[in-house]
Amino acid sequence: MISTITSFVRAIWDRVLTWICRCGTAVLSNRGLAVMVLAGCAALASGPWLRPPISRDFRGMHIPWGEITSPTFIPEVANQSPRPWRVNSIATPLLLAIAGGIAVVVFRPRWTGNVFGLLLAITLPVLAVTLWNFPTLIESFESELRDRALLRAVFRQHSEHMLSAGIPNRLADLGDHSVREEVLLMHEHSLTLPFRYTTYGVWLVGVAAMAAIVAQRGSWPRRIAYAGAWGALGVLLALAATWPRWVAEIHFARANSMENARRFSAAADALNSVESAMPALGQTQRYWLAKGRLGFRQHQSADKFEAFFLAHQSLLSGDLDRARALLDRYVSGTQGAVPQRDLLAMIIAKQAAEYAADGKYSGAELSWGEAAAIVPWKSSYWIAHRMAQLIVTPQRTAEIAEVLLPRLNAIGDRMVASDVHSLVGDAYFETGDFVRAREMYGRAMNLFHVPKFSNTYAQEGRLGM
Questions:
Q1: Within its chain, how far is the Cα of 254 from the centroid?
Q2: Residue 176 confidence (pLDDT)
Q3: How far is CA 114 from CA 32, 33, 146, 223, 225, in A?
Q4: What is the DSSP string of 358-394?
């Protein structure tokens, strides 16, 4: 009896080991490794492709192919959360190619190199569309970057002991504290600027290119040439997908050249061609500044473009009252073009920050609220507005927190979210509600607790509460 049971157990054990070995062999085979790489590519395709400074990441399923397929993909709509998953997204062709590629790898493993080559050829135009077909969205990220620096400066004015004090922004390189005004005023070329905000798209191109080389048979020069052919096809598709942007950039360069040669009429014609080639560029601050500067140099009658240019110059020189006066007549509530509203909100936010620096929190509250009403899709202004309310009327902390904290779900920057919870905890502490203050401090530490950038003094204060 015992020998029968022993034989049965041994047979079961041998069968289990056999299946484990077979599964391990399948996973570690060329076919299994190719499937795992394709699964990783699927994760990259559906993961974050654009990372704004404050807002939540844009995943592959959130980003459409372009203006033709989605004319509503503009900052005032796209920045809202939660974002819908789109059938016409950039991730759709990638996921279809990956799903088909897995079937090909399983049943026709000799075609594995073709699978990764095709994936490379599709990924390049998809990445190009993400980087260059949405200039207004990328420009809104630049505006968010400036707003974020202003917002955190206001936080530090209220309390120097923030958990996230002294750490780099989530978009900066480690050790790079790029929040100084002179750094924020530096401008990259509009074609290279989007790379600051891209995440997994570039990685997917690299993985597909390396897999296309490794999966191909033959000598290394032959493998590289094979992958290069697929890459060349991808570049051609990328040019076709973003052709309006390149035509518009050529007209932009021609306009700058003509303006420098003082051929203002030809420069104006070139700027009109920019908007004709790519209408989205006509809604950017870059276009408005170029057109306003040209009108100013021609000494034409004042118009909205020239007023925009002069207001921008006044903002840079610190004359906020003049800058606001120039734009007030063109912007009323939600009326006015998006570049005008965005610039006016920035001017008012600067005034609010000056009020806060002088301890005039009532004026800061009103100004932050006005800025938030002009550009309601930008989260930094309504956060600053609620923070100013906490300072002015701490007895309303529970009411303000009930409205403010749920809206933080739209914030992708954990540092800002941590600072907000910490400041709400400070308000509860001042009113004597120590239980809720401890709860807010705990949430702040859970949101941002990185040992490499630990703020020991602030942590001791929160933990010792």
A1: 30
A2: 43
A3: 16, 16, 45, 11, 13
A4: TT-HHHHHHHHHHHHHHSTT-HHHHHHHHHHHHHH-G
Q: For residue 443, how far is the Cα from the chain centroid?
A: 24
Looking at residue 198, its amino acid is T
**pTM of the full structure:** 0.84
Q: Which one, of 411, 270, 184, 240, lies nearest residue 386 by Cα?
A: 411
DSSP conformation letters of 248-314: HHHHHHHHHHHHHTT-HHHHHHHHHHHHHH-GGGGGSHHHHHHHHHHHHHHTPPP-HHHHHHHHHHH
Q: Is pLDDT of 20 > 70? A: no
Query: pLDDT (tens digit, 9 = 90+) per residue, 359-376?
Result: 788 888 899 889 988 988
Q: How far is residue 85's CA from residue 244's CA, in Å, rounded to a whole number?
A: 26
| Residue closest to 209 by CA, chosen among 232, 184, 187 | 232
Contact 445, 459 (CB under 8 A): yes
Which of 353, 285, 316, 348 is closest to 182 using CA atoms?
316
Q: Give the position of tokens 């990220």.
A: 141
Of the candidates 412, 352, 347, the residue with the CA atom closest to the CA atom of residue 387: 352
Q: Tokens in use for 242? A: 């973003």
Residue 64 has phi, psi (to 5 degrees) of: -80, 175
Q: How confident is the model at residue 179 (pLDDT cuts 50, 70, 90)?
A: very low
The whole-angstrom separation of Cα 464 and Cα 269 is 66
Over residues 108-152, the pLDDT tens digits come to: 888 888 899 999 999 999 999 999 999 999 998 888 888 887 877
Distances (CA, A) of 229 to 102, 104, 127, 217, 282: 22, 20, 18, 15, 36
Q: Which two tokens stand for residue 213?
A: 């080389």
Helices and strands of the chain, counted as H and E runs = 21, 2
Are 431 and 394 in contact by the 8 Å Cβ rule? The answer is yes
| Distance from C-alpha of 418 to C-alpha of 428, rounded to nearest angstrom | 15
| Tens-digit pLDDT profile for residues 290-307 | 999 998 888 766 688 999
Least confident of 77-86, 256-265, 281-290, 336-345: 77-86
